[in-house]
Amino acid sequence: MIPQTNDTDQSLSSNPREVVRRQYTASATGDMDLWRTAVAADVEWTETPGFPLGGTYRTPNDVIARMFEQLAAAWDDWVTHDDTYIVDGERVAVLARYTAVNKATSKPMEARVTHTFIIRSGQIVRFEQYVDSASVRDAMNT
What we know:
6 strands, globular, single chain, alpha+beta, 4 helices
């Protein structure tokens, strides 16, 4: 279990890889307080056009309400498998996979994805997703 934290917790690492890993861990466990420690107040969070939730979100609350909560409403067991990290200074790329089961169709889904992050002052200021949207949409169609 991950302990609850807040923005003033000085023990949180500002190492770019660890910041990204913390946001994955927090989103996987639903710990949005911990997730907020990894994300800047003016974050720019872009989901691929063609992805069901494609678009750009500009605050942590916007990301949570329009992306995380919508994923939870439409999918069971959504997991982001953060397989490989590539770190270059403030830039982090993660080669990953999504797995989930669509609630409306009961179809399983596995999609390859790459996430890119820019970390400044120990927080994610920019995120961009590149995903095989066809795999996601196939699981949504009856």
